[in-house]
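Ticket #4471: structure output looks truncated?

Reporter: J.K.
Steps to reproduce: submitted the chain below (190 residues) through the standard prediction queue, then opened the result file.
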Amino acid sequence: MIKKATAILLASMILAMGIDGFIVPYQLLDGGMIGIGLIIKYTFGFRPGLTILFFSLPIYIFIFFYRRRYFYNSLHGLLISSFFIDLFAPLRGQFHLPLIMSAILGGLLVGIGIGTLLRFETSTGGLDLLALFIADKWPLNVGIIILIMDASILIIGSETAGINLAFSTVIVCLAGLMTTLLTVKSDSHS
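Returned output as attached by the reporter:
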């Protein structure tokens, strides 16, 4: 229990550092519910952590009725990661890196955070939680499912918020890769 709590805390901080330190300063985008929170931030100025909480509620209600274990396991992941995303807002503009380096570091940190949360059967909520539910129903890796959802969010973000699609794609690909690497289920062959 202490190991899981520590992992959730550290993963949420790593995720928030990736978003606030490297993605938001260049108005780049990640996918999933984080991407939706960032689109709303760039368009209307709302806090992304609070937005992620708000937009995750319908998915949490659905999951409560169909996979209560995911609901209970992920609720604290959602609350803690959303809290840190808004808490770490002062990191925006603290790192002065070229755009490509910022996109790479942002993608890696977000992927490490999400992958670690998913490895401990929790998530940032929203679409990650939905991806976990889908992966439980069909033999698909949760990282691949998230990558497909993320691509959809990028397209929406490029159309509505004018985000840099190329560098945001770097973020999503690296985050998806790290998530996949951290959530691969090993087959045990005797």
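Triage note (M.O.): checked the attachment and the full token line is present. The chain is about 75% helix and 0% strand.
Status: closed, working as intended.
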